[in-house]
Amino acid sequence: MPGINEVAVLAGVSTATVSRALSGNGHVSAATKSRVKAAAVELGYVVSSNASSLATGRTKNVGVVIPFLNRWFFSSVVEGAEHSLLSHGYDLTLYNLSGNGDERRSVFEHFLLRKRVDAVIAISLELTASEVSSLLDMNKPIVGVGGPLPGVRTLSIDDEQVARLATEHLLSLGHRSIAHIGGNNDVELDFHLPTHRRVGYEAALEAVGIPIDPGLFAAADFTLQGGYRAAKQLLGNPRKRPTAVFAASDEMAIGTILAARDLGLHVPGDVSVIGVDDHELSDFFGLSTVAQFPAEQGRRAVEILMDQLHPDRRAPASNIPLRFELIVRSSTARPGG
Amino acid sequence: MPGINEVAVLAGVSTATVSRALSGNGHVSAATKSRVKAAAVELGYVVSSNASSLATGRTKNVGVVIPFLNRWFFSSVVEGAEHSLLSHGYDLTLYNLSGNGDERRSVFEHFLLRKRVDAVIAISLELTASEVSSLLDMNKPIVGVGGPLPGVRTLSIDDEQVARLATEHLLSLGHRSIAHIGGNNDVELDFHLPTHRRVGYEAALEAVGIPIDPGLFAAADFTLQGGYRAAKQLLGNPRKRPTAVFAASDEMAIGTILAARDLGLHVPGDVSVIGVDDHELSDFFGLSTVAQFPAEQGRRAVEILMDQLHPDRRAPASNIPLRFELIVRSSTARPGG
DNA sequence: CTGAAAGCGCTAACAT
DNA sequence: ATGTTAGCGCTTTCAG
């Protein structure tokens, strides 16, 4: 593994020039630059990121902290971030903070702070004030995805509006008895996302004068199984069966469709179902939903960090609110249709 | 951010001693060791991994290369590896090699080789001979998960045996007309996994004298949708409908269950279905399957690397073949039952 | 058991 | 435009 020295020798210049030619910092004549590059290629030279980091204080690496990896939303955000990071010449190191407090503290103290990363992306994770400030004190920008973090630039969809949109879709079809499957306390996650969605749902109903019926709410854990169980409950009672269900996640909505089927109900004939996410399975199940775009969210988070890390580069307009979009498939229709 | 110097001063020793006390290399009297540790804690000192790596040549970081992240198998392996790595004091940096050849080469040349990692875990990815040897040349151990890599220690279940086991389960229930949904060329992935499973399926049939009927094979892409479509095909023809289906992945098996349902067939009454994986949704669908344990595979991969990275440490018996296990749920039963 | 000092491989002033 | 020269913060001989 050749060092910067052999390159310098082969190109007949100093190591400083090699460094400049290869990094693009400082001026180097076109001629020498190409000579250096040729030499580097010939030798198969590649900089030692450690030496470089030590000298510059920058690591070209960002840390991503995340509570789970094997869920559609999280892994999609990470994928988006990874792609974008790669294209900026950055690496991504992953910290799975699912563990309890101990593991979590250890990650913060021994890993993130080891000067391994230039910045961190926190996905659906509520960092404590002290965690945030210790990072900020070290001059490491943070951006959150999926929920507000005190004192941190955060990307997240407007959950209340998303829920409103879904509910309004149902209302516009003529539904008046609309149930909601939301989150239980366990899933309140760190950001009260379930509450926001419930609030949006209720707001949409109230806006058209429909009273909130607590009997039309059920809590679940955002999974397909959970949604199935909750829907059985909601749809099983023929006396007060709603004509439509708004589930706070697509997985729960799919569970609802399956539950309806098992109850002998037809979707959307007997009951309309809408979710939130545009999960990879939603298209298959014909589920109407309000899509969000996690990979794009990951990408956007990276853009924001790059702007902070390289204040010189022209910041692309970066305050567009996060996109969401109603996707109507075959699980929603006029009641009694 | 205090450096090793301030710790040395506060503890009244030299930086060399601090280094030894904190890293555990070399002898330090118990007394000074604890004094140093106290000082380090008091100052909130944490080593600079870059400086340390530069000096030692070790990074305490392993690279994981992977073709996708948002699939159950991959993200589970990564989760398992991450946990294990963390407990060994290692970080994990993630490289998503889904892209085409260009992006892939760039990862290899500019990232992995940048001396960022001490080792690499390749998940279901066929590295080229030159990729492998360039890593090995730099003395970076590699371990593969999910398929054999030339010249590399690899972890993977015995796909042929897995398929045989699944098929034998069906046979033992009395099925004689057993269809198989395997992979198409796109999914041949890098490792001919679909072929191995098909071979195992055929071997099981032949062992009991059942001729292979090409009409009972269908190819799909390992997804739920793909399985659904293939199953519609296989089960839709009443003249030669099999009494059981062995799908090469749980997602396809679930698609098969849904297809059967839509065809008005009862599972397992009219058709038994078995898959491979024990996917997170399988339990919900009552799917019988041959489970594999991806998180454990990730963990095991890390153990193997640690053995190579720290040859001194007592290697835990490490040649247990990868575990798989038949899980019988409600999707399989005697034919006509 | 502990200290002094020489790097690890690069970058960034500072010169020229 | 290019070369010289100090470090970046730690580890590790080599002495003692």
TrEMBL record, chains A, B:
PROSITE patterns (UniProt xref): HTH_LACI_1, HTH_LACI_2
Annotated Gene3D superfamilies: 3.40.50.2300, lambda repressor-like DNA-binding domains
Protein name: LacI family repressor for deo operon, udp, cdd, tsx, nupC, and nupG
Pfam entry (one): Peripla_BP_3
SMART domains given in the database record: HTH_LACI (SM00354)
Keywords: DNA-binding, Transcription, Transcription regulation
Residue span(s) of domain HTH lacI-type: 2-56
InterPro entries to which the protein is assigned, alphabetical: HTH_LacI, LacI/GalR-like_sensor, Lambda_DNA-bd_dom_sf, Peripla_BP_I
Domain of life, source organism: Bacteria
